[in-house]
Amino acid sequence: MEKRASIDIGSNTVLLLAAEVIEKPFTYKEIFNETHVTSLGKDLDKTGEFHPQSIEDTYAALRDYKEKVESIGIDPGSVIVTATEASRVAKNSKSLFDKVKTELGFKVTIINAEGEAYYTSLGVIKGHNFEPENAVIMDVGGASTELILINKNPFEITRTISLPVGSVRGTDWVKEGTFEQKLDELLNNEELNHFESDYLLCVAGSMVSLGGMIKGLKKYDSNEVNGSAITFDKYLAFFESIQNLDPEQLQEKFPFLGKRAKSILAGAKLGLKMGKRLKIKSFEISTFGLRYGTLFAGTIDSKYGEL
């Protein structure tokens, strides 16, 4: 049995997963599963850089995670730490991650879109039990949305696409009054025709949170959310019931959202428009994703990113 930890530095959240892993036969037992909302993708299109407050919040989250992994005997230098779309774009990502390496000991790998798709899919395949042999995974992040077409057995990714829109970037577009125009331009991409399906398997914070909201949860419970099925009609009706609520009202109605209440409506609208574009009839929610895939793999293949 080996103790491992992975951290996913996303465009909206910083996530920690620590677990005891046995390779053969493959099993794992979670020790920590933590979330900090830090909004690294905030104002990124406008400034090209991480917002100072987001940098401060991300560093604080990683400092907290350093204490947690050390408390269970894991060296921060052995933790698999990935960063995604916001970090691929931000001009000051290197300076932040250099500081993180020097002061906290975490070595951050900025993975490319292909790596994000691969490890997200691996996490879903090894962690989530779902019916179809072929499926489309949708990963709505803070600054990007990945669509991944997979074969289940044997595991194979047959097609992927990464769209530069997520819940945080979408929230910025809503404030600018450009959300509809920019999203419609992205959804006009004919490549999306390959991902049309009756069924969509949804991972990552926005869609997982929406799954909890649709269930009426006040306190988040991954066991309640994971595997939940939502018809597209039910999703549409729920969106219509919350679309005019402000972040404070959303926070009051769904306390588990925390800081995510500021960006969840853009994520919900993105899920709605994507569902229509792909002709979806039902969603299934999976709480597995990137941090699970990297932890299960135990390493990052160099073709997917560099330190």
Architecture overview:
This protein has 13 helices and twelve strands. It has 307 residues and is an alpha/beta fold. The protein has two domains: 2-113 and 290-306, ATPase, nucleotide binding domain (Nucleotidyltransferase, domain 5), CATH 3.30.420; 130-285, 2-Layer Sandwich (Nucleotidyltransferase, domain 5), CATH 3.30.420.150. The strands form two sheets. A six-stranded mixed sheet has the order 3-2-1-4-5-12, sandwiched between helices. The chain has a six-stranded mixed sheet with strand order 8-7-6-9-11-10, sandwiched between helices. Strand 1 and strand 2 (13-22) form a beta hairpin. The radius of gyration is 18 Å and the shape is globular. The mean pLDDT is 93.
SSE inventory with pairings:
Layout: E1 2-9, E2 13-22, E3 27-37, H1 44-47, H2 52-71, E4 80-83, H3 85-89, H4 93-104, E5 108-111, H5 113-127, E6 134-140, E7 145-151, E8 156-163, H6 167-176, H7 179-187, E9 199-203, H8 205-214, H9 222-225, E10 229-231, H10 232-242, H11 247-253, H12 264-277, E11 282-285, H13 290-297, E12 305-306
Parallel strand pairs: 1-4, 4-5, 6-9, 9-11
Antiparallel strand pairs: 1-2, 2-3, 5-12, 6-7, 7-8, 10-11
Helix pairs in contact: 5-13, 6-7, 6-12, 8-12, 10-12
- The order of strands across the largest sheet is 3-2-1-4-5-12
Q: What is the β-strand count? A: 12
Tell me the structural class. Answer: alpha/beta
In CATH, what is the homologous superfamily of the largest domain? Exopolyphosphatase. Domain 2
Strand content: 15-25%
The total tally of domains equals 2
Q: How would you sum up the major sheet?
A: 6 strands, mixed
Annotation field: number of helices: 13
The proportion of residues forming helix, as a percent range, comes to: 40-55%
End-to-end distance: 27 Å
In the CATH hierarchy, the third-tier topology of the largest domain is known as Nucleotidyltransferase, domain 5
Q: Return the string of H and E elements.
A: EEEHHEHHEHEEEHHEHHEHHHEHE
Shape: globular
On the 0 to 100 scale, the average pLDDT is: 93
pLDDT < 50 runs, ≥5 residues: none
Radius of gyration: 18 Å
What's the CATH C level of the largest domain?
Alpha Beta
Label the CATH architecture of the largest domain.
2-Layer Sandwich
